[in-house]
Design a protein that fits this description.
Strand content: under 5%
Distance between the termini: 17 Å
Number of strands: 0
Protein name: Secreted protein
Largest sheet: none
Organism: Streptomyces chengmaiensis
Radius of gyration: 14 Å
Low-confidence stretches: none
Mean pLDDT: 92
Helix content: over 70%
Structural class: mainly alpha
Keywords: Membrane, Transmembrane, Transmembrane helix
Order of helices and strands: HH
């Protein structure tokens, strides 16, 4: 797994936890965390897909 994809997944998991905590506390700031989850999951998908494409192109 590419390092950047792993970092993006970690950020995604932490942002998801922060969103849950924020909504449990009744804060609407959790919407920002949900948006960050979306961005980081898309980044992880992109880096995984890019590694797959370049890995098969090198073979």
């Amino acid at each position: 797994m590419p390092r950047l994809a792993l970092y993006a997944l970690v950020v995604c998991a932490l942002a998801l936890a922060a969103a849950v905590v924020s909504f449990v506390q009744g804060s609407w700031l959790g919407i920002v965390w949900v948006l960050l989850v979306g961005v980081s999951s898309n980044m992880a998908w992109y880096y995984l897909r890019r590694a797959k494409v370049t890995g098969t192109a090198r073979s």
